[in-house]
Amino acid sequence: MKTQKNIPLKKFNTFGIAVKAKQFIEIKLIKELVAVLKEEENIFTLSGGSNILLTKDIEKLVLFLNIKGIKIIKETKNIVYVNANAGENWHEFVQWSIKNNFGGLENLSLIPGNVGTSPIQNIGAYGVEVKDTIKEVHAIDIKTQKKVVFKNENCAFGYRNSVFKNKLKNKYIITNVLFKLTKENHKLHYSYGAIQQELKKNKIVEPTIKNIANAVINIRQRKLPNPKEIGNCGSFFKNPIVTKDVFDVIYKLNDKMPFYKTTTNYKIPAGWLIEQCGFKGKRFGDAGVHKNQALVLVNYGNATGNEILSLANNICESVKQKFKINLETEVNIF
Ligand code: EPU
Fold first, then answer.
1. Of 20, 62, 67, 91, which one is least surrounded by beta carbons within 10 A?
2. Do the beta carbons of residue 138 and residue 82 sit within 8 Å?
3. Out of 109, 160, 198, 307, which one is annotated catalytic?
4. At the top level of CATH, which class does the domain 231-333 belong to?
5. Ligand 1: which residue has its CA nearest to atom 2?
6. Domain map (residue ranges) of the chain
7. What is the tens place of the pLDDT at every residue in 130-156?
8. In this structure, which CATH number among 2.60.40.10, 3.20.20.80, 3.30.43.10, 2.160.10.10 belongs to the domain 4-65?
């Protein structure tokens, strides 16, 4: 474990923003994390870098969390408990689970990022959220360096939300996550239109978890840019949830608007709102809006964090003017 100086962070954030870390340490073990925290409280944690827009150099000590390891902790006939360490790449972990025929994560295939950050924003796709498979989140208290275990019910999971994004923000560092997966009688989720179409195309009537994972991979590859080719952080904004009154006003004027009904409100796809404002596929220098999914902002090469941010602000302003809806970012801005 060695502190490095003036490290370029372009390859450590999937937006590919060229900022620097004044000081940078790679953490491979929990005990190394504890040792660093004992010495330094002024830290910035970086993991997969797939949900952050960096707009400036980082003056704090950057901790690059790279703790690896996947282990089966306990098994019954139907259930397996798997511990995955924070630095494991999310998609590789999902692939590992599919290879072992462990069910629950298949719909979450190909989501960029690492295991340790998956609970923070409760990653989700195609009718499944990571909270559905999480049993416990293990973390280190930054102040006391004590190990803390959060049971699922204490994580306040919500749509792209958790206690780690709110009340406990910057108070803990997640080191590992305990997942509860199925070994048989998998609970499959394939009612989502796009998955149904993909299975039909491949003439699959009774899908396995592998079939579902492959369907999700194909859909995502078609629609979403690969961060290895074009810098991006997936959905930049959350889909706004509005009351029936607000929904009715917009729907009256736009009866083709897609929407999802929640228990009492309506969720409107931000991608649709942004497309209606004319931004889809637009490019401003190296900052742009993806041509297949307007919810994804992209860096074509050398955009700065501030250029992406100013595009995001323009989008918010337009959506507000046209629909009277305030978009909220899903990506963290630094
Ligand atoms: N749409 C448009 N124009 C666009 C994009 C979407 O009209 O440019 C419409 C689509 O036609 C569709 C609706 O909006 O009717 C929803 O689109 P999509 O199925 O692509 O899903 P989304 O709501 O835009 C969410 C998640 C994605 C996740 C997909 C699939 C959020 C913020 N995003 O996107 O998650 O993959 O559903 O479940 O909830 C991510 O968080 O990074 C992410 C990619």
1. 20
2. no
3. 160
4. alpha beta
5. 272
6. 4-65, 70-182, 231-333
7. 999 999 999 999 999 999 999 999 999
8. 3.30.43.10
Burial tier of 209 (Cβ tally within 10 Å: 0-12, 13-18, 19+): buried
160 annotated active-site: yes
Q: Residue 41's pLDDT band (boundaries 50, 70, 90)?
A: confident
Q: Based on the residue annotation, tell me whether 330 is a catalytic residue of this protein.
A: yes
Give pLDDT tens digits for 80-104. 999 999 999 999 999 999 999 999 9
Q: In what order do the strands lie in the sheet with 43-46?
A: 4-8, 20-27, 58-65, 43-46
Ligand 1 pocket: which of 220, 295, 297 to mutate (most atoms within 8 A of CB): 295
pLDDT digits (tens, 9 = 90+) for 217-275: 999 999 999 999 999 999 999 999 999 999 999 999 999 999 999 989 999 999 999 99
Question: Under CATH, what is the fold of the domain 70-182?
Answer: 3.30.465
Which among 15, 189, 235, 241 is the best mutation to test ligand 1's pocket, defined by most ligand atoms within 8 Å of the CB? 235
> Are the beta carbons of 207 and 189 closer than 8 angstroms?
no
